[in-house]
Amino acid sequence: MGYGLWVRRKKHMLSIYKTIFSKKSQLNSNTYLYHFNLFEPKEIIFKPGQYIILKVPLEKGYISRLYSISSSNTEKNSFELIVETVLGGLGSGYLSSLKEGVEVNFQGPAGMFELKKNERDKIFMVTGTGIAPIRSMINSKFEIRNSKFSLFWGLKNYKDVYLLNELKGYKLKVASFDFKICLSREQNLDMIPEEDKKYFFLGHIDSCFEKLFTNHYSLITVNEFYLCGGRNIVESLKQFLLSKNVPKENIIFEKF
Ligand SMILES: Cc1cc2nc3c(=O)[nH]c(=O)nc-3n(C[C@H](O)[C@H](O)[C@H](O)COP(=O)(O)OP(=O)(O)OC[C@H]3O[C@@H](n4cnc5c(N)ncnc54)[C@H](O)[C@@H]3O)c2cc1C
C-alpha cells in the first residue's frame, strides 16, 4: 500500500471528538494550558505521549494542527493541551481567542511517541512546550517500576518557567523522578529562590547532561532517551546522543 493511501486510511480511522472548551490558565507570557471537556463521545482513550488533531474552522472548511495531550490518561472525560501562542499562527491564535463554553472539535488520538514498557532508565530531553507529552507520561506512568526518570527541560529565561510546583510535587512523591530546568539565556541564577536553585542549571540541556553524566558514560548507552520540542533542537540533541554512542533505537523523539 502506498504511503499516501496509508495516511488517508489512518486519518479515516481516527475518531472525532466534540469538546467544550472549559478554561485556560496562563503559564508564561505566551503559553497557555487549555482544558477541554468531552461531550461526544464522552471518553477518550490514549497513550501518554500521543497527540490530538485540532480542527481549526476557516471561512471555508478547516485546517488541522497537531497538539500533544498534556494531561494524564487516567482522566478520560477531559484533556489538556499546553500551547504556545505563535504570532499570526492559525491554530494557536484560534485557541487563544476561544471563549469558555464554545464547542471545539478534534480528531485522534495519534502518534507513536510513547514510553516503552521496559525497565531501562528514561531520560527526557525537551524544550519549551515539548514538556506537554512528558507531563502526560509522568502523570500517568508510574506503574513502570524499577526505572529512574530524569527530565532535562530547556527554557530561555527564568520568567518562562511554569509547572515548577507540579514538578517539585512529583519529585516528592516519586523517589525515582528527578528534574533540571536548563536556562539558556540567563547570565546567572541569582534571581531564583535559594531553596529552588537545585532544580536549575545555567546553559543548554546538552551541557547540563554532560555535567551530570560525565562519570556515567558507560551507563547512558543502556538508557532510553525521549526528545521533544522544535524540529532543529530535537535533531541536534539526537546527533549529540548518537555521538555519545547511544544506540539509535534508544532515542525516541517527537518533532514539533
Ligand atoms: C506531533 C506534534 C505535536 C505538537 N504538539 C504541540 C504542543 O503540545 N504545543 C504546541 O504549542 N505546539 C505543538 N505542536 C506545534 C503545532 O502543531 C503548531 O505547529 C504550532 O502551534 C503553530 O501552529 P499555528 O497554526 O499557530 O501557526 P502557523 O499558522 O502554522 O504558522 C504561523 C507563522 O508562525 C511561524 N511559526 C510556526 N510555529 C512557530 C513557532 N513555534 N515559533 C515561531 N514561529 C512559528 C510559521 O513559520 C508561520 O510563519 C506540535 C506539532 C507536532 C507535529
Automatic annotation (TrEMBL):
Record-linked InterPro entries: Cbr1-like_FAD-bd_dom, FAD-bd_FR_type, Flavoprot_Pyr_Nucl_cyt_Rdtase, FNR_nucleotide-bd, MRET, OxRdtase_FAD/NAD-bd, Riboflavin_synthase-like_b-brl
PROSITE patterns registered for this protein in UniProt: FAD_FR
Superkingdom of origin: Bacteria
GO molecular function: oxidoreductase activity
Domain FAD-binding FR-type, first and last residues per copy: 14-116
Family annotation (PANTHER family): NADH OXIDOREDUCTASE HCR, PROTEIN RFBI
Descriptive protein name: FAD-binding FR-type domain-containing protein
Organism of origin: Candidatus Roizmanbacteria bacterium CG07_land_8_20_14_0_80_34_15
Organism taxonomic ancestry: Bacteria, Candidatus Roizmaniibacteriota
